């Protein structure tokens, strides 16, 4: 397995293990099985249970095709919709414990998932040979859609994963200070905590200061109203996030 170093906005590299080609193929096959299951169920309901097949008899070829496209539409948009809703995963990826992430360290957006979906048309050309070759020759096992969207697929089976580093022990009577932290994602908080712990370890005050200012900017906080040190501020931000999202459970 190869590693990918995701460079954050604070110029700190966080290493992840890229998902293997085998893991990605298995995830694809699992998702494919789900799609096939849906198509079988959808057509069975349409033709056998609801007996709506007669509606197609009076339609021309193009109208019939439009009906079939409408029935199978969920299969077509399956990847982009579920990756958007499940933060870079589909059921297949979730079962294989892999996830789509941005190489620049930020949470992938709907636009990124959409680009990956559009390029899937090319990646699946010749029974998927194009995408397979791209993953083999690319540095981070990226298919063309990953390269175009600036994403990679990482494995969550290793010690460093998307969510475990955001955990922080807090007391039951803990009172949060900054409710604005709910605007952050798990990926944002992982980056914040990883950067903070690394900076504290080597006493890199410049990184701590930049990180503090970045958080204040993102959450639109009043800088002058924060009556604490930058280290105390970041520590509270981490705890507040865990408090509001229940990550300490």
CA distance, first residue to last residue: 31 Å
Uncertain segments: 159-165
Number of strands: 4
DSSP summary: helix tally:
9
Structural class: mainly alpha
Query: Which word captures the global form?
Result: elongated
What share of residues is helical?
55-70%
Major sheet attributes: 2 strands, antiparallel
Q: Strand portion, in percent?
A: 5-15%
**Mean pLDDT score:** 86
- Over the alpha carbons, how many angstroms does the gyration radius reach? 23 Å
Encode the helix/strand succession as letters: EEHHHEHHHEHHH
Biggest sheet, spatial arrangement of strands: 1-2
Outline the structure in words.
There is one protein chain. The protein has 249 residues and is mostly helical. It is built from 9 helices and 4 strands. A two-stranded antiparallel sheet has the order 1-2. Strands 3-4 form a two-stranded antiparallel ribbon. Strand 1 (3-7) and strand 2 form a beta hairpin. Mean pLDDT is 86; it is low at 159-165.
Describe this structure in a few short sentences:
The chain is mainly α and 249 residues long.
Using brief descriptors, characterize the structure shown.
single chain, 249 residues, mainly alpha, two-stranded antiparallel sheet, 9 helices, 56% helix, 8% strand, elongated, transmembrane, transmembrane helix, RDD
Element layout with pairings:
Blueprint: E1 3-7, E2 13-17, H1 21-49, H2 61-85, H3 91-96, E3 98-102, H4 110-123, H5 125-137, H6 144-149, E4 151-155, H7 186-201, H8 205-219, H9 230-245
Antiparallel strand pairs: 1-2, 3-4
């Amino acid at each position: 397995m190869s590693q990918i170093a995701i460079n954050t906005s604070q110029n700190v590299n966080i290493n992840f293990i890229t998902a293997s080609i085998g893991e990605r193929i298995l995830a694809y096959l699992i998702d494919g099985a789900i799609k096939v299951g849906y198509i079988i169920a959808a057509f069975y309901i349409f033709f056998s249970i609801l007996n709506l097949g007669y509606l197609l008899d009076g339609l021309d070829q193009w109208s019939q095709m439009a009906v079939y496209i409408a029935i199978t539409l969920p299969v077509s948009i399956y990847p982009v919709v579920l990756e958007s809703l499940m933060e870079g995963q589909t059921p297949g990826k979730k079962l294989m414990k892999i996830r789509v992430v941005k190489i620049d360290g930020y949470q992938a957006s709907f636009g990124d998932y959409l680009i990956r979906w559009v390029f899937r048309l090319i990646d699946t050309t010749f029974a998927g040979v194009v995408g397979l070759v791209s993953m083999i020759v690319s540095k981070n096992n990226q298919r063309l859609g990953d390269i175009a969207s600036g994403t990679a697929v990482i494995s969550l089976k290793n010690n460093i994963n998307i969510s475990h580093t955001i955990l922080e022990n807090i007391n039951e009577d803990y009172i949060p200070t900054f409710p604005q932290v709910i605007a952050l994602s798990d990926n944002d908080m992982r980056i914040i905590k990883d950067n903070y712990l690394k900076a504290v370890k080597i006493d890199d005050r410049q990184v701590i200061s930049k990180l503090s200012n970045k958080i204040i900017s993102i959450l639109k906080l009043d800088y002058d109203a924060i009556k604490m040190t930058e280290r105390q501020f970041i520590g509270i931000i981490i705890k507040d996030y865990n408090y509001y999202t229940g990550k300490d459970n």
